[in-house]
Amino acid sequence: GEQVEFWQVVPVAVVLVFIIEGMLPIISPHRWRNMLAMANQMEDRVIRNIGLVCMLIGVVLLYLVH
Q: CA 42, CA 16: separation in Å to the nearest integer?
């Protein structure tokens, strides 16, 4: 049921993330460098929260798309 679908979607989501992450430095190296510099100044806690929010949004979007 639901569980099986989730685990079928996870690898696709991971691949998409890698593709998108890989595109950023190619499309706009300058903006990517600025993002890294900003991330460098943030606390671990803030970065974890951003990651968590992005993950949740991604899961919700995948759920809505399917």
A: 25
Tell me if 57 sits within 8 A of 49, measured CB to CB. Answer: no
Q: pLDDT tens, 24-52?
A: 888 989 998 998 899 899 899 998 998 89
Q: What is the sign, positive or negative, of the torsion defined by CA atoms of 46, 50, 52, 56?
A: positive
Query: What is the pTM for the complete model shown?
Result: 0.53
Give pairs for 10-16: CB < 8 Å, separation 24+.
13/58, 13/59, 13/62
H-helix segments, the chain: 2-27, 29-41, 44-65
Instruction: Identify the DSSP state of 17.
Output: H
